[in-house]
């Protein structure tokens, strides 16, 4: 409705290829409905069952390993991240490689979800982790090269999209429901905050390292 309002009332032009656009909008609506049904039927139950199986084994290391791997794999498959990475490589004239950017972001999400799972298992208060994490983000912002900072901040947002969020939410709720003394409402949520925070750290960390290596090479060539 907003798009049509601006198109007709503000821009005062008809929408080009209107039939095709209407069909596309209908397909998006149907796709979103199917996606929500799929979450309820498949992803949330399997997340809960895997969380139950892992907590029953009594080996917390397996929980952290699973959290790390699910965070990494879902982020690498995230369409929003792929789009950002391709555009970043294009605009930076190959200064930022899309494959490296995707890997670094996925690594950040993996570390974040693993650490978030540790917090959930240990019962620590989430705000301590978030305060420390964002303090480091502010520190890294001061040292990171300027071209990497906006991409780093955007990376924290694109990782919490259609593929990552449902699986991470299912994992968090599943762990909270199956660990004694945890409240799903209080402890089950929060993993997505870690998934948003740590990519900013890894991307800026990568930028700082790349800039350092560049200066080292320049010194050697003098």
From TrEMBL:
Source superkingdom: Bacteria
Residue ranges of the TM segments: 21-43, 63-88, 100-120, 126-144, 156-176, 188-209
Keywords, in A-Z order: Membrane, Transmembrane, Transmembrane helix
InterPro entries found in the cross-reference section: UmpAB
Statement: the UniProt record of this protein carries the keyword Membrane: yes
Protein name: DUF1538 domain-containing protein
